[in-house]
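Example with several molecule types.
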Amino acid sequence: DAKTTQPPSMDCAEGRAANLPCNHSTISGNEYVYWYRQIHSQGPQYIIHGLKNNETNEMASLIITEDRKSSTLILPHATLRDTAVYYCIVSIQGGSEKLVFGKGTKLTVNP
Amino acid sequence: EAQVTQNPRYLITVTGKKLTVTCSQNMNHEYMSWYRQDPGLGLRQIYYSMNVEVTDKGDVPEGYKVSRKEKRNFPLILESPSPNQTSLYFCASRARGTLGAFFGQGTRLTVV
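Resulting structure tokens for the full complex:
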């Protein structure tokens, strides 16, 4: 079973920030938080990952709470092309190659 | 361009007719894996490989075989396909020590 809990759906206006929450209250000390997204039926796309510090790349920012029990993926200026299912996953680095995808959050960006 | 390439993208076949879905990556990644995606069940891992000649079962390996004779290729073999293997299949690869996987564009398989 997935170790994360995400809202099933969210809406966001185009040009506004999209903030996608994820709860991972049972995360262990050596587990990273990864985010992927899947646009329609395309292959999932890696977005960002983090351990305990906040992270930012060209796609998004990841904010992890101090107790590491939850995180938020931020798309600073959402576009229509960001409409997708977003998956939050926890996994150890260097473990067996297995990403456990939950149901994710369906983000709809509206014009 | 870094990519994972699956072929074919679409396939309709009949029950019992052996088929192979190919997967190739050009990033020299050690890890490769296969997933299937079904409505309501999400993405589930079928098999994975941590290096050449090293493969292991994922969560739903029944009815599938894989091989890893070369680092870049990881074919998925259905010896005797059945209708319950109708699904959307994804191949993925990543480098050892990295955290982001690259996924192929998917193969939509229908078994009638």
